[in-house]
Amino acid sequence: MKRTETREVKIKDLVLGHNNHVYIQSMCNIPTKQAQKVIEQILNLEKMGCEIIRVSCMDMEDAKAIETIKKNIHIPLVADIHFDYKLALACIEAGADKIRLNPGNIGSKENVKVVVQACKQHNIPIRIGINSGSLEKDIHEKYGKPTAEGMIESAKRHIEILEELDFYDTVLSFKSSDPLLCIEAYRLAAKTFDYPLHLGVTEAGTTMTSAIKSSLALGTLLLEGIGNTIRISVNGSPEKEIPIVKELLKSCKLINNVPNLIACPTCGRTQWNMEPVVNEMEQYLQTVNKNITVAIMGCAVNGPGEAKHADIAIAGGRNEGLLIKKGQIIEKIPQDKIVERLIKEIENF
What we know:
NO2/SO3_Rdtase_4Fe4S_sf; eight-stranded parallel beta barrel; single chain; 2 domains; five-stranded mixed β-sheet; TIM Barrel; metal-binding; iron; Sulfite Reductase Hemoprotein, domain 1; alpha/beta; 4-hydroxy-3-methylbut-2-enyl-diphosphate synthase activity (flavodoxin)
């Protein structure tokens, strides 16, 4: 099964699956009970392009905070719950739009039945999250190590519980810190299930290691038509995640309202301090939702030629730059005015 052949699952007003839109997700790193701080973080993530947000639910105080958070944000909210079915019920009553819950981990089937009934009543889907590092003991012993086959076997156990209760509004994830295992597991999942798939590499590390691991694993899967929603996990602030996932989706031609920043690596010909300009423009462009290509080139040798296909470009000279629009040289700009002028041109584009 590929992206457009999966089931449809509604999350608030979003339809996940059965189309080519891959929704961008993130997860708050602030205790949910600190509602005002969580709201501020979510609103910032919304501006950056986050479309679905997840919060942890560790206790009843967290669950009750969801009601306040929901009233002050605009995107669907997912409650992440482990082991305690009563927390799931509390999150549902508080207004969560989706829950992340492995039904085999919350006790008796009667507990699962109560949660499923509440989800049906409120039209709330469930994500089953399979992580390679936390497979059931017997599955781990059977395969000797985390394997794609073992992850699929684990998922089948949880899915069977829900399907016996006539519940099919399910989303699946198969995460690992090993990008090659992620690829193998999601490929097998796409052949095995028709449920929408939530892509992710778990415990991916710092910004650099996460970007590399996620691009390898999730980029491969996206290009194969696998995946309906995606989170790129980065250690630290979730605001680090959104630019990486937007860049990945843009490179896979799955979104087009994201700026494209081109910048040369610099060499001995570079006669101006280019790096701060590139960094400042990268930061600014993360807040821009336009299909625009901006090129910042280091010298006048390759600059004009390399920049001619950009919408707006700078080809640097000695402490200055040539402003180029649609391949036409417009004027020279002093280095200390370059960022200000580029921002103005982008806003008027």
